[in-house]
Amino acid sequence: xxxxxxxxxxxxxxxxxxxxxxxxxxxxxxxxxxxxxxxxxxxxxxxxxxxxxxxxxxxxxxxxxxxxxxxxxxxxxxxxxxxxxxxxxxxxxxxxxxxxxxxxxxxxxxxxxxxxxxxxxxxxxxxxxxxxxxxxxxxxxxxxxxxxxxxxxxxxxxxxxxxxxxxxxxxxxxxxxxxxxxxxxxxxxxxxxxxxxxxxxxxxxxxxxxxxxxxxxxxxxxxxxxxxxxxxxxxxxxxxxxxxxxxxxxxxxxxxxxxxxxxxxxxxxxxxxxxxxxxx
Amino acid sequence: xxxxxxxxxxxxxxxxxxxxxxxxxxxxxxxxxxxxxxxxxxxxxxxxxxxxxxxxxxxxxxxxxxxxxxxxxxxxxxxxxxxxxxxxxxxxxxxxxxxxxxxxxxxxxxxxxxxxxxxxxxxxxxxxxxxxxxxxxxxxxxxxxxxxxxxxxxxxxxxxxxxxxxxxxxxxxxxxxxxxxxxxxxxxxxxxxxxxxxxxxxxxxxxxxxxxxxxxxxxxxxxxxxxxxxxxxxxxxxxxxxxxxxxxxxxxxxxxxxxxxxxxxxxxxxxxxxxxxxxxxxxxxxxxxxxxxxxxxxxxxxxxxxxxxxxxxxxxxxxxxxxxxxxxxxxxxxxxxxxxxxxxxxxxxxxxxxxxxxxxxxxxxxxxx
Lengths: 280, 369
Fold this sequence. Notes:
The structure holds two protein chains of two kinds.
Chain A: E1 4-15, E2 22-33, E3 37-41, H1 48-55, E4 63-68, E5 71-72, H2 78-88, E6 89-92, H3 104-113, H4 119-132, H5 148-160, E7 166-170, H6 178-195, E8 198-202, E9 214-219, E10 222-224, E11 229-231, E12 238-240, E13 246-249, E14 252-255, H7 259-267
Parallel strand pairs in A: 3-8, 3-9, 6-7, 7-8
Antiparallel strand pairs in A: 1-2, 1-4, 4-5, 9-10, 11-12, 13-14
Helix pairs in contact in A: 3-4, 3-5, 5-6
Chain B: H1 6-13, H2 15-46, H3 48-51, E1 57-61, E2 74-75, H4 77-83, E3 88-102, E4 108-116, E5 129-130, E6 137-141, H5 142-148, E7 155-158, E8 161-169, E9 178-183, H6 184-191, E10 196-197, E11 199-204, H7 208-218, E12 221-225, H8 226-269, H9 272-281, H10 285-322, H11 331-348, H12 350-358
Parallel strand pairs in B: 4-9, 6-8
Antiparallel strand pairs in B: 1-11, 1-12, 2-10, 3-4, 3-11, 5-8, 6-9, 7-8
């Protein structure tokens, strides 16, 4: 692995106390190197967002340690965390989360302003980034005038503006169609490979597997071996092979998230078989 | 160097809300400026007969320090005593009362009626048309004459007698009354008084303050220099109107506070998620506070910028419509109103500032509806 950018050790996060106590993250260990793309998958409520929030220095863990670029987050005071986030972390969100009153260029500039870069220098940096993402003609457009793909490209440019160590992406392709989602995935891959950023993505999107160096499955707050996972052919969800409803069709075992999906499949398997010999 | 002006962009991106906020603040400032201007205008008119008088010192009965709503009676013999004092160039008596001047159509105009010695101090500074009053004659303000429906040579009644209008003054009608002039002897005859005057107007050879001090000390009378006498007059009128003015000003500022507070609150509420995004990206609370305060600043700045010319236009329209109501818009009143508006902005921003301080950056992970 390349130089370690993110390291989490025995990470725990517990919300509430007593009967209402919820252990959202349980003893997670994670290392992500520069230039590496890690995809974290898992069912809803598995602790993905909590883990991402802790890695994003927005939520303090109950126990365990996180270091980014060798800096132990526990040693960064609350008042310095803002600056730490602005300089070392880049965020990409499912809902894009661009500032609606600012143009595409100003959205990127705003991130630069947070690290003290202002004026012509920040305008130029924002322009170069957006032009690099094919948005040279959209610099002055506000988010409501941009397509979903354009918005997400602006969000990635914003995330990269301060040359962060880590990019944290929360469902970056969820609101995008297949073609655009693939393009966004490619941009994130490029950010990792060409700019040596560590990219941690949380997603349900199977397409992102193509660009990930590693896929981690988070369930009940713990990582499980992704090799034990399968894709439900009906709903597309990743499911754990063990204990999942399954069905043997023409010698191939299919796994399902629920009996309902299995029943839908068994009623007409040909409908869900995407192999070339059955297509059409 | 400056960063992206997020506050201004937020304000201008929702122009309807921005317009309402600016219009509300402008209305509040307009009300305050108009009230202040009307009051200042009235005050200027009320003290005009003092401010334009050639007298350096005004002498009244002991304890009387102004004209408005006051009665002063000085033995006429004191006029000679004043004239003999060192430092006195001249001393002229006037009689003074407040009475209604009634026209032929029974229209009434409240007026200070002044009895003076024609050709001496105490009379009108300038007669626009006609001449000084002869026996049985009166000089009234042109606008009052128009209101009363009388022309030069026409008849009016005041002090319980009929008078022929011999001349018109201008600029001596204000929001509450006007000024009329008759001969001193006619005033005495009409009121049936002898050997008493109301005030003595004095021309000083040296420092008026010093002379006023001498007169007060040597004679059993009140003597004030013209600026002090005018200031006393203003104070009396002001004291009588202060409560009303204060209530109306508080009402106007309350409107402004409600508008700016609601505008900022609504603007902040609609952008809570974006505030969460900014926090997640690394924006400090100080920077976010500056965004809210800049929105407040722009709203107030634009409100004041609109309110000042609007008040000037209102003043012009009011004067055109009434002829005697002036609205004095001064730099001081604009600065006071703008200062008040800045305080409003500060107060109005408190709730939004508390709101943004509580925003959790983790809201960025919640899905938008």
